[in-house]
Amino acid sequence: MDDQTIIRCIQNGEVAVFADLVRKYHRKLLTFIFRLVGDAGLAEDIGQEVFLKVYQELPRFEPERGVPFAAWLYIIARNQAINELRKRGRSRTLPEEHLQHLPAPGSSPEEALLNQEKLAALAATVADLPEPFRATILLSLQGASLSEIAERCGVAPATVKTRLFRAREKLKLLLKESLGGVGHERRI
Known about the structure:
By secondary structure, this protein is mostly helical. The chain folds into two domains: 1-94 and 108-128, Rna Polymerase Sigma Factor, Chain: A; 130-180, Arc Repressor Mutant, subunit A (Orthogonal Bundle). The protein has helices at 3-11, 18-37, 40-57, 69-87, 109-128, 133-141, 146-153, 157-178. Helix 2 crosses helix 4 (69-87) and helix 3 packs across helix 4. The two termini are 22 Å apart.
């Protein structure tokens, strides 16, 4: 079942399917939170709070508005992590990869939020790629050449090309699944 179907079931009173969402996102969400807070125990606590908040807010979630569930989930998690760090009096500089880009001059708040959600969905999808595809595509995104990636990974350049192709194909499929259907992958 895709996210939109699960959400509709929950909104129609079938709360037992919420466990499907938890199973689907639990590991990725805890990894994301841990990268923000740097403490496994705290990440677990925040993860539980996030899922509780999501469960409480799900009746008002409107998948038809085009906001991917995964993006909404990760925004809640990021905000919860920041709030928890503030409460504990701990200041931690968030890694650059988790900082959102400033909106372009003249863009509306809705456009800025949509861009943040797209970036969150993309980051979550890249984190979900299996190795060695994740490492290969991350090195490529960081500007490494085929020969540099081949050298770092200890493989032939032709293998790097194959891995990049397969990683991109897998990303398309994961984004399509994450965004709940056909046609949405072009927005990212």
